[in-house]
UniProtKB/TrEMBL annotation:
It comes from Olsenella profusa F0195. Keywords: Sigma factor, Transcription, Transcription regulation. One of its GO terms (biological process) is DNA-templated transcription initiation. InterPro entries: RNA_pol_sigma-70-like, RNA_pol_sigma-70_dom, RNA_pol_sigma70_r2, RNA_pol_sigma70_r4_t2, RNA_pol_sigma_r2, RNA_pol_sigma_r3/r4-like, WH-like_DNA-bd_sf. Residues 130-181 form the RNA polymerase sigma factor 70 region 4 type domain. GO terms for molecular function: DNA binding; sigma factor activity. Pfam families: Sigma70_r2, Sigma70_r4_2. This is ECF sigma factor. Belongs to the sigma-70 factor family. ECF subfamily. Residues 25-86 form the RNA polymerase sigma-70 region domain. It comes from the Bacteria.
């Protein structure tokens, strides 16, 4: 079943296999890419995407439309990314205090792995691309908005609804992100 914008889901049981399959087909790739843009880790992005869909499965939320499902999924994805960042930071601060600096530990091959040696070549090429590196340096809100707008193809109104802000805020974040990306890419060229 296509991901129609005006499709009503309140007649469908929220926990049905068909509902979950449709949600995963429609937004699974988007959720993974958003998580990847926030975590910059293939494994973390997969874990977050899996967790988001498990939360959807157990959610008691009554979804009014496919648009509502999409917005819910994006919000939960962002929340999970923030939770992961907080727990990762606290875990690594205790690791650093016990073992010296995190940078030293990583140089020794200890501590948390950022990239898996089994990642496919396309993902590795993406991570080496100057635009991806510049995108990773943006603040979370700008990075999320940029990914949703330029990579996922959502318009400012859809992004605003999903992120719980106004379309003006979305356009401001996009303008600031473009400006920052220009500067970062210019620095990369020199």
């Amino acid at each position: 079943m296509p991901c129609a914008r005006d499709e009503r889901t309140h007649g469908t049981p929220q926990h049905s296999a068909a509902f979950m399959r449709r949600a995963m087909e429609c937004w699974g790739d988007t959720i993974y890419r958003v998580a990847l843009s926030q975590t910059r880790s293939h494994q973390d992005a997969q874990d977050i995407a899996q967790d988001v869909f498990l939360r959807l499965l157990t959610s008691q939320t009554h979804f009014e439309s496919s648009e509502h499902v999409k917005a819910w999924l994006l919000r939960v994805t962002m929340n999970r990314c923030h939770e992961l960042k907080r727990t990762w930071h606290s875990r690594n601060m205790s690791y650093c205090s016990d073992e010296g600096t995190l940078e030293t530990a990583l140089q020794k091959g200890e501590g948390p792995a950022v990239l898996s040696p089994t990642e496919d070549k396309a993902l590795q090429a993406l991570e080496r691309h100057p635009l991806w590196k510049a995108l990773a340096k943006l603040p979370d809100e700008q990075r999320m908005t940029t990914v949703l707008y330029y990579i996922e193809g959502y318009d400012a109104t859809e992004i605003a609804r999903a992120l719980g802000c106004s379309p003006v805020t979305v356009r401001t974040r996009l303008a600031r992100a473009r400006k920052s990306l220009r500067v970062l890419l210019d620095e990369n060229e020199h």
